[in-house]
Amino acid sequence: MAQRGRRSARVSGDERQDAILVTAEALLAGRAFDDVSIEDLARGAGISRPTFYFYFPSKDAVLLALLDRVITEVEHRVGHLPRDFESDPAGAWTRSIGMFVEVFVSHRAVSTAAIGARARNDEVRGLWSRSMQSWVDFSSDVIRAEQARGAAPAGIGAHDLAVSLNLMNERVITAALNRESPAIAETAALDVLSTIWIRSIYGSDNPGGR
Amino acid sequence: MAQRGRRSARVSGDERQDAILVTAEALLAGRAFDDVSIEDLARGAGISRPTFYFYFPSKDAVLLALLDRVITEVEHRVGHLPRDFESDPAGAWTRSIGMFVEVFVSHRAVSTAAIGARARNDEVRGLWSRSMQSWVDFSSDVIRAEQARGAAPAGIGAHDLAVSLNLMNERVITAALNRESPAIAETAALDVLSTIWIRSIYGSDNPGGR
DNA sequence: TGAGATAGTCAACACCGTGTTGAGAACCGG
DNA sequence: CCGGTTCTCAACACGGTGTTGACTATCTCA
C-alpha cells in the first residue's frame, strides 16, 4: 500500500530507490551502461554517491532491478500466448514473434545494456537466460506439436530449432535497434523473421494452405 | 625479412610486440577481456606497464591487432569460397557455413572478446562489421543468383535474408562456444544451421532434389 | 516525553586500473 | 665516439568503485 497521510518532511526511501531506477533508465536511453557512473545515478536521484550504496550494492544491481521488471513482463506475456496453431500457423507465429519484437523495442535501453553486461555478470546472464528460455520453451512446445500433427517435417530437433530461431531474433533485433551494420531495417524485422521461422519450421511458405 | 646475424643483447621491439599479442591470446583463452589488465599483458611479455604503451596505445588496440589477423583470414577464405550452387546447393551451403563455424571455433577467444568489446569500441565494431559484411555479401550474392535461376523463391529480399541468417550464425555459435543457456551443442551447430539456411532460402529441405 | 531502535546521509578514505611524463640506458650508423 | 633513435620504467595524475564511521532525522513504545 502507498504512503498514507501527509507527506513526510523527508523524501522516503522508496521514492529514492525509485528515483535511481528512473534516472538509470533515462540515462541508459542516451548512452552505454559503462558510460553511466554511480555518481551520475546518485546525482540524478538527488543523493550523494555513498548514499547510492544504501539502496543498491552496485551499478549492476540497478540494471538487474530494471531487467527483473522486463523479465516478469516477458514471462507473463509468454504464458498468455495462444497455442492454437492449427487454423492459421503463419499468422500465429507472426503474432508470437511480434510480441518478442515489441518487448525488445519497448525496453530497448534495458535490453541493450543487459546484453552488454551479460558477458561480465553472472546474475544478468542468469536472468536473461531465463527470459530467453521462456520463449524457447514456448516455441519448442509448439514446434513439437506441429511436428506431431504432421504439419511440420521432423528433420532437426524441435529444441535446437527453437533455440536457434530465438537467438536469431535476439541478435537481428538488437542489430536493427542499434543500427549496426550489417543489420536489417527495424520495420522489416518482423516480416523477415516470420518468414524464416515459418520456412524453417514447415519447410514451406504456406503451411496448412490449400 | 627476419633478424640477421647474431641475436642482439636486448630483445628486439618486434619480439616484444609479438610477446604482448601472444600473452593476450593466451590470457583471453582463460578469462574475459575486462579481467585482463594491461599490467597482466606487460608482465606476460616481460616488460613494465608504461613500456606496454610504447607498443600499443591501449588494451583495445591489442584486441584490434588480434582481430585484424582474423579478419584478414576471413576475407581471404570468403573470397575463395566456391559459388557453384547449381549441382548440390545443400552441400555447398553446408560447406560455406562449415567454414564460418571453423573460423569462429579456431579463434574463439578473440571472437568472444571482440563481440564483447564491440558495444564499447568503434574500431572493434567497424572491423567486426567488415568481416560480417564479407559473409553477408557472399551469401546474398548466392541467394540472389539462386532466386534468379528459379531455384529459390523470392518472398523476402536476398539481402535481409542473408543478414538475418548470418547474424543467427554468429549468435548461435557464440552461445554454443560459451556454453550459454539456452544454446545448442557445438557438435550440432553445423547441422542445425545448415538446415535452417536451406529451408529458409529454398522453402524446401531438398533443393534441386529429384 | 524521552530513550532506544531504525532509516537515511555523506565527508573522507582506501584501492585499483588507466594513461602520462620525463629522465635516462642501450644500441646503431656515421 | 658521437648524435640520433629506440626502448625502458619510476613516479605521478586521474577517475571510478566500494567502505567506514560519525551524524541526523524519524518512528515506537513504555
Topology, element by element:
The structure is a homodimer of 210-residue chains.
Chain A: H1 13-30, H2 38-44, H3 49-55, H4 59-79, H5 89-106, H6 108-118, H7 122-148, H8 158-177, H9 186-202
The structure holds a DNA duplex (30 and 30 nucleotides).
Textual characterization of the structure:
The structure is a homodimer of 210-residue chains. Chain A is an all-alpha fold and 210 residues long. Chain A contains 9 helices and no strands. The first copy, chain A, has helices spanning 13-30, 38-44, 49-55, 59-79, 89-106, 108-118, 122-148, 158-177, 186-202. In chain A, helix 8 runs antiparallel to helix 9 (186-202). The longest helix of chain A has 27 residues, at 122-148. The radius of gyration of chain A is 21 Å and the shape is elongated. The relative contact order of chain A is 0.11. The model of chain A is unreliable at 1-9 (pLDDT under 50). At the A-B interface, helix 6, helix 7, helix 8 and helix 9 of A face helix 6, helix 7, helix 8 and helix 9 of B. Chain A binds a DNA duplex (30 and 30 nucleotides) through helix 3.
Which class of secondary structure composition applies to the elements of chain A? mainly alpha
**Which pair of chains has the greatest number of interface residues, and how are they split between the two chains?**
A-B, 46 and 45 residues
Amount of beta strand of chain A: under 5%
Radius of gyration of chain A: 21 Å
How would you sum up the global shape of chain A?
A: elongated
Low-confidence stretches of chain A: 1-9
Question: How many separate helices of chain A?
Answer: 9
Major β-sheet annotation of chain A? none
User: Helix and strand succession of chain A?
Assistant: HHHHHHHHH
Could you tell me the mean pLDDT of chain A? 92
Would you report the number of β strands of chain A? Answer: 0
- The oligomeric state is homodimer
Helix content of chain A: 55-70%
CA-CA gap between termini of chain A: 56 Å
